[in-house]
Amino acid sequence: MTAACDYNALSDEAFRREVRAFFEREYPPHLRYILRRARWSEMKDWWRKLYTKGWIAPNWPREWGGMALDAGKMVIYLEEMERYGVARPPDQGVTQVGPLLMRFGTEAQKNHYLPRTLSGEYIWCQGYSEPNAGSDLASLQTSAVLEGDDFVVNGQKTWTSFADEATHIYLLARTDRQAEKQAGISFLLVDLKTPGITVRPIRNLAGHAEFCEVFFDSVRVPRENLVGGLNEGWTVAKALLSFERLNIGSPRRPQYALNRLELLARAKGLFDDPAFVDRFAALKLDLEDLAALYGRFVGKVKRGEPLGPDVSMLKIWAMETWQRLSGLLLETGAEEGAIAGVHDIGGVEADFLSPFYYSLPATIYGGSSEIQRNILAKTVLHLPG
Ligand SMILES: Cc1cc2nc3c(=O)[nH]c(=O)nc-3n(C[C@H](O)[C@H](O)[C@H](O)COP(=O)(O)OP(=O)(O)OC[C@H]3O[C@@H](n4cnc5c(N)ncnc54)[C@H](O)[C@@H]3O)c2cc1C
Of these residues, 42, 82, 213, 244, which one is catalytic? Predict the structure, then answer.
């Protein structure tokens, strides 16, 4: 890894130039703008390049090998990723586990896990959801019972993204059955090679095995793998949610769908059809609204202000706009739109089906649209519940 440099001392323009040049020079062209979530197996060489450059963890402090970017530079870094179509690798270790350990972890946990997470030796997946605990996560039933120096974990997680390629899982488990729902939950780090764990991939609609079920049968997890206090897992898990909502609220993906739609509509002469123009214009304006809203929240982050519950509005608008655009793209692709893979329609080469498949679950993960609306109703609009 190269020695850390103070990127915040650079002007925004100089920093942007440096990031842009690196991405353009080093990012594998065949992985630009991929229309699904990237797997570790295809991203590991890119991870290695970023790690070697000291750029794998833009949000981590320099003492732990991060770039320590301030909010403004962080936004530039993300904007350049989006501009060049750089995919996010399975980076939950960097975006979730690292920041949580820095805040709640012991010195021993930080010293063990942070360097290995950074180098890509440890690849993390998130074990929160269960068959009967998704939106109502606090009703999770996976249990962790202390026996001597170990927790004994039993239960099942589901929709665990890329667990089949991960080496470790961070999970929420019930450690006190008598306590109120949220109060009896703890946060554990678990090596997926521990005996008693079975990982079973689930194939999605597009045919990709992008998430898994994970079963725990009397799995012994050392007590030292508890993060935060016993029964304080809820506080640990909640700490990063609003930043994640900003991240998925970016207009990048709907913008990509709109660009494809515009090219395709031109090739098919659809801008002569007033009904199509009407729908296209409405969606383009929705996207403009999204970009403005995103800019407002990014501005808050840049100024170092905390994000409030109103960021739920961004998640709803980004994901629903993306779905509407992907739907129209699919419809406009007509026969070819219904067949997976890249097609050439009137000189426009694109995969018209993938954005649709990829946008469908977006109103479910990261907190469903209904749940976001509940949050807005309760905590922002103070509507009677
Ligand atoms: C692509 C993808 C990747 C995922 N990756 C992970 C992962 O890596 N790790 C992980 O732990 N989980 C992951 N999840 C799971 C995700 O967090 C859950 O799907 C989500 O929390 C919703 O839970 P659920 O699927 O159990 O649906 P449910 O909670 O059962 O909801 C079903 C429907 O009911 C609605 N609903 C539920 N409660 C209310 C309410 N109170 N008011 C109004 N409507 C309500 C919901 O909005 C939804 O439409 C992933 C999901 C997807 C789709």
Answer: 244
CA distance 362 to 292: 20
Topology, domain 124-233: Butyryl-CoA Dehydrogenase, subunit A; domain 2 (2.40.110)
pTM metric for this prediction: 0.92
Output the ligand 1 site: residues, CB below 6 A.
Answer: 125-129, 134-135, 159-161, 211, 361, 364-365, 368, 370-371, 374
Cα(142) to ligand 1 centroid in Å equals: 17
Pick the CATH number of 7-89 from 1.10.540.10, 3.30.1950.10, 3.30.360.10, 3.40.80.10: 1.10.540.10
Q: What is the pLDDT of residues 265-312, one digit of tens each?
A: 999 999 999 999 999 999 999 999 999 999 898 888 777 788 889 999
| Predicted pLDDT of residue 239 | 82
Q: Tell which one of 212, 365, 369 to mutate to probe ligand 1, the residue whose CB is within 8 A of the most ligand atoms.
A: 365
- Provide the CATH topology of domain 241-380: Butyryl-CoA Dehydrogenase, subunit A; domain 3 (1.20.140)
